[in-house]
Amino acid sequence: MNVELTLWAASVMPLDFDERIRAARAGGFTATSLFPFEVRRAEEAGISATEIRDRFESAGVRIAVVDPLVRWLPTWRRPQLAPGDPATGDFEPEELFAMSEALGADVLSVLALFDSRVEPESGAPAFAVLCDHAAEHGLRLQLEFIPGTGIPDLASAWEIVRLANRPNGGVLVDSWHFFRSTPDFALLSSIPADRIFALKLEDAPALPSEEVAYESLHSRLLPGEGELELTRFLRAMPGTKLPVLSGPGVFSDELWACYEPEELGERLAETTRRLIASRLWRM
Is residue 282 domain-resident? Predict the structure, then answer.
């Protein structure tokens, strides 16, 4: 397997850093992501970003991604969020550039969670400027689309990235977001493989819940344990290899309640590897 199996923070959000390391090691994950708010919370408790980095790296797990940056467009407005929401924290881009460097992460996810619809004609120049600033820090930016946000689908995200035309700018593709928006397999296949920087894998029932936002943050399913056409989705991914940073991003209250950290890591890895193997392509 040529992917660097990534334990996205969404899958282990309630766990502290030491528990996440245990989960990662049990599942054979070699990379992970962190939410900015939890890094800030640790710093406020006297644990520096450098110490966090050392703790993960000494266990053989690198912090590959900081996720997300949501404050980058002029249309951004400060939201009212519950404590512990993954998007908590009014982080300026430069704050997250510095945080990423301290953690050893070379990728930063970018969202438009709290913006009105972002048209490519305005979104692309803003993303290009952001990419240029990120390049000064050696960072790549991956634009993530989420249904119901300013960038709601793959077509919107890709057009912004395409028009911005920056070598350090790409897209992140999340299977739950793909199927809960407008799943365009032909478009997915047409995107240059090197412009898809990362992949998050989750499953779900074929039909969305009436409370889609709640489903997104609380009741996603392990890869291959729902009704989404995930094998077709993986086979539509461009190129002969999946993105290097690929792994589960399963927000799930049920999983978190049922498994100890090691068991959770094993289940996440097992289901993800089985799904990836179903792609039937040499990796």
Answer: no
Number of structural domains, the chain? 1
Cα-based distances in Å from 114 to 7, 177, 220: 26, 16, 22
Cβ contact 90:52 at 8 Å: no
> Which domain covers residue 107, as residue numbers?
4-277
∠ CA(31), CA(35), CA(37), 5° rounding?
150
Nearest CA to 274 out of 236, 200, 222 is that of 222
Residue 34 lies in a domain: yes
Which residue, among 263, 208, 278, has the nearest Cα to 19 in the 3D structure?
A: 263
Summarised one tens digit per residue, pLDDT across range 128-163 is 999 999 999 999 999 999 999 999 999 999 999 999
Residue ranges in the chain modelled with pLDDT below 70: 1-2, 280-283
pTM score, two decimals?
Answer: 0.95
- Output phi, psi for 70, to 5 deg: -115, -10
- CATH number at 236 reads 3.20.20.150
Q: H or E segment at 207? A: none
Residue 283 belongs to a domain: no
91 exposure class (CB count in 10 Å sphere: 0-12, 13-18, 19+): buried
Token duo for residue 55? 């703790």
- Say whether 47 sits in a helix, a strand or coil: coil
Ramachandran angles phi, psi of 113, nearest 5°: -65, -35
12 domain-assigned: yes
Separation in Å, CA 131 to CA 118, 165, 209? 17, 10, 36
177: which 2 tokens?
Answer: 């977001």
Question: How many whole angstroms separate alpha carbon 12 and alpha carbon 80?
Answer: 24
* CA nearest neighbour of 63 among 22, 97, 35: 35
